[in-house]
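Justification of resources, computational component.

The compute hours requested in this renewal are based largely on the per-chain cost of generating structure records like the one below. Each record pairs the submitted sequence with a full structure-token output. That output is archived, and it is also reused by downstream analysis tasks.
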Amino acid sequence: MSNRRDFLKLSGIMAGSVFLSSKLLKAEAFARGKYPYQPGLQLYTVRDAMAKDPRGSLAKVAKIGYKLVEGATYTGTEKFYGMDVKEFASVLKQNGLVMPSSHFALGDPQTKGTILSDWDHAVEDAAHLGLKYMVCAYLPEEVRKTIDDYKKVADELNKAGETCKKHGIQLCYHNHNFEFPEIDGQVPYEVLLKSADKDLVKMEMDIYWITKAGYDPVAMFNEHPGRFVLWHVKDMDNTPKHFFTEVGSGIIDWNRIFAHAKESGMKHFFVEQDVCPGNPFDSITKSIDYLKKYVIS
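The structure output for this chain reads:
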């Protein structure tokens, strides 16, 4: 396991070093061609606007050119941005938007609309809305302290994935970078990949967090082909902090990564920027403009 882990880390270091040291590599990557995917947006990027005016915000997102969106609410309220399924579906349709995926919390027995509470209802709502993917977005710190904790999470994901499967929905898990520091000689993310059923639980790779953890996304695609059906396309700036930035403004080689989309199993990607330097709508415009010009057809 350590050899494989070292390989993945080394691949990430080498990819980053080559990218930073050679402008020619980027030019060569652009020459490889564009990739036929519709641009998607994780609505967490514009979360404040969505909280104040979801209808107007979705209209702005569509006008900018996004065709797909990924949701980031439901937990607790069992509503989509304050709307029931029928109303929210109507707003999406009015704006020519499709929402194939949405984030949900692992939760706890007291919080409705989560994997651990009232999951059947959440899955039924998701099916009625037309979701194809339900994503476990995050693990609270108290459930990720030991390797056994991660194995328990995998068991819960397997059970939740069975429920999703009955409704024609695929469950996924979204990573950050806390899953990568070793615990007792094991990498928690590798434990999740191994312990969660590969058919019941696919992965939504957050490429920023994978890269920040020191791993190479392409090497991981090759290690687990077909497992990464969703991506978060999020760039990393060229500063010591390696903070969030607009797609195309950072150090991640997107053409290199998109060239391996087929091996990864990717069906949809969503631009995400956790923190924007100014107006988030300006940031998502900059990101989609770059992707349309250089990466997607």
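The longest strand covers residues 98-104. The chain has one domain: 2-30+38-294.
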